């Protein structure tokens, strides 16, 4: 099956990583998968398939996924910033600050 068809069948972040042959840390993926997929989607929107002949498009998509992973996989600060609530939720637990 062509890789574009396989990509259309991907349902999880792990599916994309397997398709593109990118290693990931399963434990870390559990906490960053949505952020990685959001960024991956954003990076893909900036890629014009007409600019990448043949397998170069596959490599461009692979690079986009790898960049999205690297942005979140190794940075607790990036995750904390996504969830930080400077107003607090009112529960009094101080977990948001």
UniProtKB/TrEMBL annotation:
Keyword Methyltransferase: no
Pfam family, one: NifW
Keyword list, A-Z: Nitrogen fixation
Alphabetical GO biological process terms: nitrogen fixation
Subunit structure, interactors included: Homotrimer; associates with NifD.
Function: May protect the nitrogenase Fe-Mo protein from oxidative damage.
Family: Belongs to the NifW family.
Protein name listed in UniProt: Nitrogenase-stabilizing/protective protein NifW
Organism: Candidatus Lambdaproteobacteria bacterium RIFOXYD2_FULL_50_16
Lineage of producing organism: Bacteria, Pseudomonadati, Pseudomonadota, Candidatus Lambdaproteobacteria
């Amino acid at each position: 099956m062509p890789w574009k068809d396989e990509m259309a069948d991907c349902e999880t972040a792990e599916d994309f990583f397997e398709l593109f042959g990118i290693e990931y840390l399963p434990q870390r993926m559990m906490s960053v998968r949505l952020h990685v997929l959001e960024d991956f989607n954003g990076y893909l929107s900036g890629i014009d398939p007409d600019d990448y002949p043949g397998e170069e498009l596959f490599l461009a998509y692979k690079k986009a996924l790898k960049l999205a992973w690297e942005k979140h996989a190794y940075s607790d600060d990036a995750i904390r910033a996504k969830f930080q609530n400077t107003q607090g939720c009112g529960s009094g637990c101080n977990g948001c600050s």
